[in-house]
## 1
Amino acid sequence: MGATSTSTGPRARTRADAVRNRERILAAAREAIVDQGPHAPLDEIARRAGVGNATLYRHFPDRESLLFHVLLYVNERIVERAQQTLETEHDPFEALRSLILHAAEERVGGLCPMLSFGVDHEDPRLLASRETVQRLTQQLIDRAHASGQLRRDVGAGDLLVAVARLTLPVPGTHGSDSAMARRHLQIFLDGLRTPPHSELLGAAITLEDLKEEFCPTTP
């Protein structure tokens, strides 16, 4: 009987190592971009990921490719958390809170400068992931509205813009202000609960409003 490959053979281990390296590079790139912006040195990203420059370039041949996949990586992680939250968290407001705090952990505000750095926003993969984030966010908001816990004058566009702004790194902190961002998001979340204590200026901002105002650079 001839030898057959198995899921635990050398090739499988090599593939698993490649997947781990790719994840480490993307996570390191996200943090470096938050700290230093889209021009963060690629060798610094490789150093943070614990891989050699050749490994980084094997996965991402140029800066534009790396930045594109960082955006895709963050969107996919937010989608995964949103889906998990919809399935497991029965309190609608706590489900929404969980997603917002996870978005802060993904450093979404610090990644905003990438949106104007030559990334192809019309790429079908990025469009699909962004639309999925928006759709799941809207589902969580609809549930929180239906439960009577979320004030009615707040829309999905309000939340997406507010989270992006509140998670922008404070100048001089070099991206090390994540605890501060979570604190300010907690203050923001408390202000979303019913009953409202003040009247907001203007109407709730919807996803459609956001697309019309910022498309194609809306995260």
## 2
Amino acid sequence: MAKAQRPHIAILPSPGMGHLIPLVEFAKRLVHQHSFTVTFVIPTDGSPSKALKSTLDSLPTFIDSVFLPPVDLSDLPPDSKIETGMISLTAFMSMVAGAKLVGLVVDMTPNDTIANATYINVDTQKDDDPFMFLPKGFVERTKERSLVVGSWVPQARVLNHGSTGGFLTHCGWNQFLKDAKVALTPKPNKNGLICRDEIAKIVKCLMGSEEGKSVRNRMLELKEAAKRVLCENGSSTIALFEVADSINHPLLSTS
């Protein structure tokens, strides 16, 4: 099937590899299983990272990408609050105006998440030492029992590795983890900080206690459930087929 004949969808992800990677997997399903063409519209506030460029360069046929120019903030008052995810609607509309899109997928971070989360952002392109936020000598002291990576890593592959028994998250999806009963939450001290002793306590609990065993078993149950919904006759596969079919055959779907 020629590229011009395929239904064309644009995807606008929030900044960050954690948002882009699952959307890339979603795009692959649209392309390989439903014969769509997908264009990623990437917001930028400067030069794209090496990880971002590597991911976009490896996209398969019928998935491409374009970069939105940075938003001009020069006319804003000095005390303006800047939030992640700002894009130029004018630039976006002009970029997709002639694309003849049949759909637009927008992934934007909600404001309450931004307001309640603090992120450490290390620009490895500008700083000679990407580990500058770590305590002095940390990498050397822990090199025999840990691996510290100074750039983005393929998270799904790390989590899928057989030796991975758990992970520490910044709590961006903390409520989901609690509701799904697959998380052990460390308690902050009186200053609102979570210290290393508390983290060590939680890790030991996860790896060696009955509560930790229950969490790991629950995670295995959810893993198998996720496999089932993504199999050929799984609910997610069927739902995506119905959406794709409604786009490809709108009259049949509404009759």
## 3
Amino acid sequence: PIACIEKVTLGISILLSLVVFLLLVSKILPPTSLVIPLIAKYLLFTFVMNFLSVLVTVVNLNFNFRSPRTHTMPNWMRVVFLEYLPVILRMKRPKKTRLRWMMDMHGSSPPCEHLPTADALYQQQQQQQQQQQQQQQLMDGKTPPIDATSLAFNNIAGQLSPAAVRATEAIEFIAEHLKCEDEYVQIREDWKYVAMTIDRLQLYLFSLGTTVGTLYIFLQAPHLFEAVDQDKLIALQNNKTST
């Protein structure tokens, strides 16, 4: 998988092995040879493909470990790697988290939107204080002044005690924190899915390239589809030896 860092180590180990094989082949060839043998061509082709694979893997690891704090995903990348390419490559997106799934439902909204805001809580506190002052003035025999603000506060339904206000603020903070944390996780999952898409595309392209290149190199071999008479060759070799 792309999250496994040992993928780069494996690619570099294969590169070193190919270099050793190329050195052995170069020592076997005569110094004045003008023709490159097929095995050397195949090793060179495999070396180039493996080198490109290591480069793409390094870039892919960069995408896999990105986060919202360091990078912002462009819109074209979101459209290409999250919408179109997964459909073409027949990939299925992993399931979303429960909170994000609830937010994406039709007609639903984030949990914190159902809670009263800080302004509403402040207005409720002011309303409660003014009502207490009005009750105290009525008990003292004074007529409390009536203004537009007090009338607006009186229209707010429900009364909350200071303990309930603090509890509501704590619930609002927790809900907002969970929402931000879920959005952070979802953006990281988007980057990981982009890396998965590139990795799947790399698999298809390199498999196709390796197959076509291997067939092209081996089809260049002379007498590949010609029948060879072994008895005739042995007799010819014996005649040369006897003479």
## 4
Amino acid sequence: MNDYLLFMLFEFVLQEANGNVFKELPRHLTTVKNFIRISVFVGLFIRLFIMSIMSYTGGTILAMAGNDCVCIASDLRLGEQMTTVATNMKKVHKLGEKVYIGLGGFHSDAKTVLDKITFRKNLYELRENRKIKPEVAAVMVSNLLYQHRFGGYFTEPLIAGLDPTTNKPYICAMDTIGCISAPNDFVAVGTGTEYLLGVCEGFWKEGMSSDELFEATAQSMLSAMERDAASGWGVIVYTITKDKVNVKTIKARMD
């Protein structure tokens, strides 16, 4: 709406100036008026109809922390703007025994980051002779993204897991150049983030058990799937506890 009002303001100014100013100017300066009008049209078209590369393939990922447990969930849709390409796309991947990574954004860049970070994780565990912690995995991903900041990867990683020794939950998300945000409650990336955060505020509470955490995560994701056209075709939820990892698939909007 702001773009439309800006365009109308430009149009009004140009029409007013047409009779008073432009008729007194040489012919080549009259072209400036048309150039401004076309520029505003093009800018408005880009803002309204051309999607960001970060939302080109769509998708939403959410992580929540509970009492010695974490949940990480994603939708199953892979798209090309508003065209659905696949309905069983895996966006959450296992990095360690209790460490998972979700990759939102442009799918091909997400796959590249996953391959590179898997290689670095394997090298770390061989060199250090110990299992990787979620905090270490987050720093590793952040370093990778920051190294490529001038020709970056169009992906927003999300890390969720438990410390292999203390079982302390850890969740974090980062932007395309690796700036880490590690809250204590929940974090989301992807096209449905704006629909998730308010719902998560209502569902999340401190000290939730694994069952309560799964329910809160699932209901939050289902709510976002109803509102985000670039996500959908079901939700897969990973519940990570100190004893095991439960994986459940939930039916959601199928369009």
